[in-house]
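Hey team,

Filing this mostly as a record. A colleague (T.K.) asked me to run one chain through the structure pipeline before their review meeting, and I want the input and output archived in the tracker in case anyone asks later how it was produced. No errors, nothing strange. Just documentation.

Input sequence:
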Amino acid sequence: MNSLQLKGTWNEVKGKLKQQYADLTDDDLLYTEGKEDELFGKLQKKLGKSKEEVQKLIKDL
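Output structure:
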């Protein structure tokens, strides 16, 4: 998923992630354009998954 696709659907993705992983906070899911790597890093740390796993998880939602 590229940054344009992520930006366009982020609110929907964020809601689904919060439903699936209740321990994620709004701060964990804060999307800032151009800082996708930082977002993936936060999610990796919180979920204990690799960057590829996090990207696949988001893509599959």
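Quick notes for T.K.: The mean pLDDT is 89. The first helix runs from residue 3 to 20.
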